[in-house]
């Protein structure tokens, strides 16, 4: 067989390929030749073939068939073979493949080899891809080499020890004695890898961290090494851009950060050296900036002196003036993390931070925006808002929503006056109205309503803001609402804050009618405008007939919402005109609330959620044909959230069809919950969930078996409420006596309409086989009339690959549970 081509010739040949297909053909041809050589056990060219295979692997082609050949090269006595073999093992093998375990004995022999370079190859391979089993077997050899006097081997053994600790943390103590003398080494390679090893040990074990702080006195040793580095003169073998071994300095600073965190003594010992590094490091090159950045992070993370923290923030301030975008971004990110703890020190760089809002880089611009909002306080709110509003005018669309939201929050928190607050919000709505949050309109309306002395000024400003421009829908909505409420102030010209404008009633109506017919107006905006026109019928005197005409026109609008409003307003004019002034009188001062009604914190299955409390009216007689209209869609889809209604509600019959089949002619209501349970409003009969609701299982209330069929058994046990004797809690326990698990189990229930029911989330959806476990679920029932309890249940689950479903009625509740 002819000698295979050399690696250099293969690379040259592959590079001549003009297409991907041509390259693929060359690779396949060479792989076939390599396979033939492997089959013939050709020891002469095995090293050359594996080298070519590794090059193909680097190009992304499969090379797994060369794994065993790598092991054969490792077992060879020639160094060149071992070098390619170990390189192939590191590239082609990992711990997910059992083949790598065959290397263990070879690595162990090579770790005890007489040649340091062979030992180095074995250490590199073990530190790169050694599995936990290999690490356990070879940790002793690594620890032995860590104590050797050969610096070449010690630095490789230290990195290998890091890998061993990551794979088998319990072996950490084995390396503890060897670490004592590592930092006394003068070789920078050994020092660097030693610091990496110590950092790994401190990060992974709090006990090791405490040991190095107290017993080993590690901080003074690191301070000594760092001081020698920054004070030493020029050393050509370690110099990088005029700085002595910046890589070692960065590693030491990171280890000092870990040692000084939450420790007063260690922090005190390193304060002076950190100040020296911060003041003596050259900043003209990127190398110096990297060291300064690590120094700043260390100062901020330990319990450093206040003066040192100010020095660190000033370094970040200098970073903001750097031409390198990466350094500016790093500085902004770091200042954002420290602004809460060192607010005043960061404030000194406010002008530089605000200048970063004009940067062309979007990442820097976003960080500057976030930091600017963090710097806003009561003293600088006017100036900062001016800059941020200017930024809002000119920024890209993706920034406008976040910027508008931040301005709203800052203005609400730090507004020096109500007029300033209103002006600021109106400026945002004028500039970026389409990007504001959904709650911006009601929040501004509430602010305007509560600022009684500002009503005339506000309505005049809003009127002028929307003249001929309806593009900003939130602004038009607020303006329409205010004109409807305070239109009489606008016409009367009572504004004292600025020069009043002369507006007639017809001009005001012209604006609102323009909003109604504008193509830019959304349906919600038209609703605001129509309601405002209706309100003006009680504020204006000369244009009531015109208002009637406009309202009547929209009684036949294709927009159902608008049509409904118009029809109702027409009815006010025709049938209830005597009530119109009272119904449309000015809104009272609003109280800001987070929901539409009283709230209570509901604890459901360990999760806290807020539910609106609603009361249930007395039951009234209903016709049998409307039975489905009185039912919540208890057993329908999960997209419906059942609540206790405040008035008889109307549901489509199709939504309750399945429920009628289940419940027959019973008049029922309840809230079954599937797993996972939908959010359910807390019924009013339940007290605050932070207090104990129920006694222990009451003596004398026996448990019952509600269902027992096809291996599925449902038991009910009972408790009574501490705070309300009309409330009963039923705990269901579902067990499975078959040989296979029941999955996707859902329990649903309904009770007669004289009761109220709530199901909490089940403990699981899988019932284990052979009665080896149970599912529990809690039902809470209010029985104010002390009637006999009846319940209809529906069970669904998967068993033996089939979907199962069954219905049952439970009528054998013990009298003690409901009397």
From TrEMBL:
Primary localization class, coarse: cytoplasm
GO cellular component: AP-1 adaptor complex; clathrin-coated pit; perinuclear region of cytoplasm
GO biological process: intracellular protein transport; vesicle-mediated transport
Subcellular location as annotated: Cytoplasm, Perinuclear region; Cytoplasmic vesicle, Clathrin-coated vesicle membrane; Golgi apparatus; Membrane, Coated pit
Membrane topology field: Peripheral membrane protein
Function: Subunit of clathrin-associated adaptor protein complex 1 that plays a role in protein sorting in the late-Golgi/trans-Golgi network (TGN) and/or endosomes. The AP complexes mediate both the recruitment of clathrin to membranes and the recognition of sorting signals within the cytosolic tails of transmembrane cargo molecules.
Protein name from the UniProt record: AP-1 complex subunit gamma
Organism of derivation: Chrysolophus pictus
Source lineage: Eukaryota, Metazoa, Chordata, Craniata, Vertebrata
